[in-house]
Amino acid sequence: MTGLTRTSADLDERRRRILYRCWHRGIREMDLILGQFAEKEISGFDEAELDALEHVMREEDQDLISWINGSRAVPEHMDTPMFQRIAATRPDFDPVTMDNIGAK
């Protein structure tokens, strides 16, 4: 899987904007992690959960990746239930494009 698979037509404007931003992070690893997470979960999020997701999205991709893969400790301000849910996501990396991850 390498991109959006759900339609955003049934989402309100805020959710469509967040979903788009999740799929257009800047590095492919975060596109896949946040994009697939948001696709699966965003329609059921309440306003507080959307706020929490946007809080995570404000962080730099390189920091998020290092916290998610465990190469750096998660700082206290990011050790939240939403971050833990995202970090537990195991994206479906397409083996055909795996060599190109990060080359975005």
Automatic annotation (TrEMBL):
The keyword Chaperone applies. It holds the Pfam family Sdh5. Keywords: Chaperone. One of its GO terms (biological process) is tricarboxylic acid cycle. Belongs to the SdhE FAD assembly factor family. This is FAD assembly factor SdhE.
